[in-house]
Write a structure and sequence with these properties.
With about 600 residues, this protein is an alpha/beta fold. It contains 23 helices and 16 strands. The protein has an 8-stranded parallel beta sheet with strand order 7-6-5-4-3-2-1-8. It has a 6-stranded mixed beta sheet with strand order 9-14-13-12-10-11, with helices on both faces. The protein has a two-stranded antiparallel ribbon with strand order 15-16. Helix 22 links the parallel strand 12 and strand 13. The longest helix has 17 residues. The two termini are about 25 Å apart.
Length: about 600
């Protein structure tokens, strides 16, 4: 079916369910000031004058974006200082900027960067203040992986969406754009000016361990249109969009965090499957593109990952596709880029391949000194460094970072997680839950039935089963919750089966069950008990391949609260299921035959 082109506009936002007040807010002079670039002559003048006054050390620093630990730019917390010293050789972000002349930081929850919106804004303002006190006076790119769904760094109260595959299940390009518009607005309000999203990978491998629901699915056409909508929405909000992972990470069974995947696609398959979203987003003016640590022999037979491949990054991306935006690496700490070369060689080889921004080197001093040495010994020319720094400066100018590096913390309460934003997120999510099978007519759940919610949960905090239990209770059901954790033991399985026998219906949640025999045994034991069972995949929809006999099966593509509220609405009949599969689920018993085809989904219960 067609997926019309979309740019985020007042009318499109309203059509998606945003109130007039939010639509106006998204288009106010304050919100849009950072997105309207001044005249090209002014941009060129600033970029050239800035480049001329920078030392070689400052130019090399602009090429690096790294993580830093701490809630503030000048933290003195002893534990945080020790961690930063081991990784960066400095105490905090302020010292890292002064020591390495950095071009950016990337925020992580585990690094203590994203505790609360006001704290993030304070960190951002502190970083920019230090940057503007340096001789080069260049503000930083402050990045985050806020893909939504499975990959989120800024949690509630920031508005949460169910992620790309869920949006694709909803089949609305407008919804994809609106999700990015709200996410972008909230990020910009806390000082984040680059989102490492959207994912442009086309997921055609059910065994993909690293992409899955982060993708818009298996349709290159649908992925291209939704990627374009999100690129435009992020950049309209003053946040640089970053496509990932070039040239396409969607057909691999190896995680590049821990290994080096090989993509065996032919050039025809790359052109037909992997490259369309990148081509479309390049044409739409995407600010940046992230490389993949994958080997693609048809493009480069050397065995080098794409991050270090001149034929892929310069030959294909720069020359053939005509891309002149900023090329950033995936984390240089990942195994996929470290297997063949030492950490001091990787950043130099990446720059020689065509990269502009080097992200998260394992040891900052080693990487920084290696690039400086490569310029001084002639392996890299200063002209080559200038090319990348020019692209980086141009991006900072065009996205309004030069003119508006700071944020007003007073605006956060009126921007982040507002009732309007939360309501829109829920309405969009309600259009994504997918019902694939309801053979015995187990749905809707009835208030007279006592319901057991069991199954997968984060072992550190059993929030998903609890969230579904609350949502079902709010809809009038009597609910008991028994989390079995991420990898249920036999004792937990036995407890869940015993509980199921005393309840009218059991809802069992799974998350990537193909990789966990405990989850498979749990569902099989519940089905064998004879108790009525509703199975729900709360991440990748492929879980049903592990228990294809499940008579009632749904998929939410996400395990956050907004997805669980939508699921509760569908389970009780308050919301009619509307999502349709954006991927094909193969039948494990009949190779080449779908268990559920692309587009499958029941629309009534």
């Amino acid at each position: 079916m067609p997926f019309p082109e979309h740019s985020v506009s007042r009318r499109a936002i309203l059509a998606a369910g945003v109130t007039a007040a939010t639509a106006v807010a998204l288009n106010t002079p304050r919100a849009m000031a950072a997105t309207a670039p001044p005249a090209p002559a002014a941009e060129t003048g600033w970029v050239n004058s800035t480049l001329r006054r920078m030392t070689l050390e400052e130019k090399v620093g602009q090429l690096f974006t790294t993580r830093v630990y701490g809630e503030s730019a000048d933290t003195t917390d002893p534990d945080v200082v020790r961690t930063n010293q081991s990784f960066l050789g400095v105490d905090n972000a302020a010292q890292a900027i002064a020591r390495y002349h950095l071009g950016g930081f990337v925020y992580f929850a585990y690094a203590g960067n994203t505790r609360a919106p006001e704290q993030v804004a304070g960190l951002s303002n502190g970083i920019q203040r230090v940057a503007l006190e340096q001789p080069s006076r260049v503000p930083l790119l402050l990045s985050i992986d806020q893909e939504q769904g499975a990959v989120v760094r800024l949690g509630p109260p920031a508005t949460q969406f169910p992620g790309n595959m869920a949006l694709a299940a909803g089949r609305s390009v407008a919804d994809a754009g609106t999700a990015a518009a709200i996410t972008g607005q909230e990020l910009r309000s806390v000082g984040v000016n680059q989102n490492l999203a959207p994912v442009a990978d086309v997921n055609v491998n059910p065994a993909n361990p690293v992409i899955g629901v982060r993708s818009f699915g298996e349709s290159p056409e649908m992925a291209a249109k939704m990627v374009v909508a999100q690129v435009r929405a992020y950049q309209d909000a003053g946040v640089a969009a970053t496509l990932k992972h070039f040239p396409g990470h969607g057909d691999t069974a190896v995680d590049s965090h821990s290994g080096l995947p090989v993509i065996s696609h032919s050039r025809e398959e790359l052109d037909r499957i992997d490259l369309p979203p990148f081509r479309a987003a390049i044409a739409a003016g995407a600010d940046s593109i992230m490389t993949a640590h994958i080997v693609v022999p048809v493009l480069d037979p050397s065995g080098d990952p794409a991050t270090l491949s001149y034929p892929i990054l310069t030959g294909l991306l720069r020359k053939e596709l005509g891309y002149d935006g900023v090329v950033v690496t995936d984390s240089l700490g990942m195994a996929g880029v470290r297997q063949k070369y030492g950490d001091e060689r990787v950043p130099v080889l990446a720059l020689k391949a065509g990269v502009d921004v080097l992200v998260n080197p394992p040891v900052m001093k080693v990487a920084y000194d290696a690039v400086l040495a490569a310029v001084r010994n002639g392996e890299l020319t200063e002209r080559r460094i200038d090319e990348s720094v020019t692209r980086i400066l141009r991006l900072k100018w065009r996205r309004g970072i030069v003119h508006s590096p700071f944020v007003d913390t007073a605006d956060i309460a009126d921007t982040v997680g507002t009732p309007d934003h939360l309501a829109v997120a829920q309405r969009i999510t309600n259009r994504t839950t997918t019902l694939l099978r309801d053979e015995p007519g187990a749905l809707p759940l009835r208030p007279a039935d006592r319901v057991l919610v069991t199954g997968w949960d984060d072992p550190a905090a059993p929030t998903t089963t609890a969230a579904l239990g609350r949502a079902l209770t709010e809809r009038g059901l009597t609910v008991d919750v028994l989390s079995t954790g991420a990898k249920p033991s036999q004792a937990r399985i036995d407890a869940a089966v015993a509980a199921a026998l005393s309840h009218g219906t059991t809802v069992v949640l799974t998350n990537r069950a193909a990789g966990d025999t405990g989850q498979q045994k749990l569902v099989e034991a519940l089905l064998a008990s004879g108790a009525p069972v509703v199975a729900v995949a709360v991440r990748d929809p492929y879980d049903v391949m592990c228990f294809p006999e499940a008579p009632t099966y749904l998929t939410t593509y996400a395990f956050n609260d907004v997805a669980m509220r939508s699921l509760a609405g569908v389970l009780t009949g308050a919301i009619q299921p509307a999502g349709r599969l954006p991927v094909t689920i193969p039948d494990p018993a009949r190779p080449g035959t779908p268990l559920f085809p692309f587009g499958a989904g029941l629309t009534t219960i």
